[in-house]
C-alpha cells in the first residue's frame, strides 16, 4: 500500500479538523484509496500554543517554506489563508512537483489562473473543494456530476454570516446593527465583518463557481458586489408580505451577450427551495440544460464540514497518484474567455422602497418618472408612516428592465420634491 506524505500549512480550526479526520478515519480512507496518509510536517505560527488535536511525533515548524521544500512531503495542504505568503508557498510547492490541496477561496479567486496554469505545466493536481461552501461538494458536482450539461446559471447563499443576519432580521423589530452584534457574540461574525456583510467573501466563491460552471477564467475583478448593511426591518416585512424572502445571493448567469457575475441582496419567491435556507447554512442552486434545476445544501463553515472537504480532496489526489484518475482543475481542458457583462447590461425586476409625501398627484409623479424609462409597475403598496409626518412608505415591484434604465429612473425619483431621501432598490430573481 502506497504511503502519501502530507505537509500541512496551518493548524487552526480547519487544520485541526483535517488532522483529526485523518487520524479517526484512517481505515476507511485507506479502503477508498488503497493508500495510507501520513502527516509528516505541520507549519504553525506559534510553536508553544496548546493544540486541540494530538500531533504526536509530527514535526512542527514555524517556517512554512521548509514544509513545501521537504523531501518527505508529497502533498501540501494549504490552510493558512491570505493571498500573499499563501500564493508564494502554493506556487513553490507546485514548482517542487508537489500536489496541493487548499481551502483558500481568496487565493484562487484572485490568482487561480496562475496557480492552475503552473500546476498543469508541472503535471500536479490542485484540489480545492473546501474553498466554496464548506462541506457541500459543489466543486465536484459542477466539475463532474453535471459534466453532461451546459450550465445556464448558478445562484447561491455562500456566506453563512450574511444568511444568519438576514434570517434573524425576520424577527419583529430586529435591525441590522443589533443582529450583527448578536452574530459577533455567537462567533458567526468577525470583529471586522466587512468581508462577510459587504459580499467580498461571497464574490471570491462566486468567481470560482462561475469558472467551473462556464469554463471561463477566474474574474474576481469583474464581480459586481453589494452588501446587506442597507437592508431594514421594513424591507424584511414588505418582502414577506409580497411573498418573497431576502437572501444575499451570488449569481452567475450565462446569456447570449455574455456572463453576469454579481453578489447582492435579492428577493426570491418563497416557493423557490433556496428561499427556505436559514441560519448559517449555505446552499447552491444550479440550472443545467439537461437536468434542469438542482440544489446543494449544507454547512458552509466549521472544523468538521470544511475539513471533510479537505480530506475528500486528499482522496481525489491519492487516486490520481495511485490510479491516474485526474480531472482538470476547472473541469474543462481549456478555458474560454467569455465576455463579462457590465452591471448596467443586466436585466432584473426590482423592488423599490421610498418615503413620499402623502398628497394628491404624487403617485402620478413617480409613475411618470418610471414610465419615461420604459418601466412599468407590477405591484404597489402604500402605507402611512406612524410618526405623524404625513409621509407614506411606498413599495413598488417593477417589470424586468435593464439595470441602466433602472439607475436612471432611481435618479429621477430621488430628484422629485415629493420623495424624501434615497430610494432603496433590491433586485428580484425568480431563478428559473
Task: Tell me about this structure.
The protein is of the alpha/beta class. It folds into three domains: 155 residues, 3-Layer(aba) Sandwich (Rossmann fold); 160 residues, Dihydrodipicolinate Reductase, domain 2 (2-Layer Sandwich); 83 residues, Alpha-Beta Plaits. Strands 7, 8, 9, 10, 11, 12, 13, 14, 15, 16 and 17 form an eleven-stranded mixed sheet that branches. A six-stranded parallel sheet has the order 3-2-1-4-5-6, with helices on both faces. The chain is elongated and about 80 Å long.
Query: What's the CATH H-level homologous superfamily of the largest domain?
Result: Dihydrodipicolinate Reductase, domain 2
Name given to the CATH architecture of the largest domain? 2-Layer Sandwich
Number of domains: 3
Count of discrete alpha- or pi-helical segments spanning 4 or more residues: 14
The tally of beta strands, per DSSP, is 17
Low-confidence segments, given as residue ranges, are none
Relative helix content: 25-40%
| Rg (CA only) | 24 Å
Average predicted local confidence, pLDDT: 94
Shape: elongated
The share of residues in extended strands comes to 25-35%
Secondary structure class reads alpha/beta
* CATH fold-type name of the largest domain: Dihydrodipicolinate Reductase, domain 2
The CATH class designation of the largest domain is: Alpha Beta
Topology:
Layout: E1 2-9, H1 13-24, H2 26-33, E2 35-43, E3 59-61, H3 64-69, E4 75-78, H4 85-95, E5 99-102, H5 105-122, E6 126-127, H6 138-145, E7 151-157, H7 160-168, H8 176-185, H9 194-197, H10 200-214, E8 224-225, H11 233-241, E9 244-254, E10 259-269, E11 281-288, E12 292-299, H12 303-323, E13 347-357, H13 362-371, E14 377-384, E15 391-398, E16 401-402, H14 403-415, E17 419-428
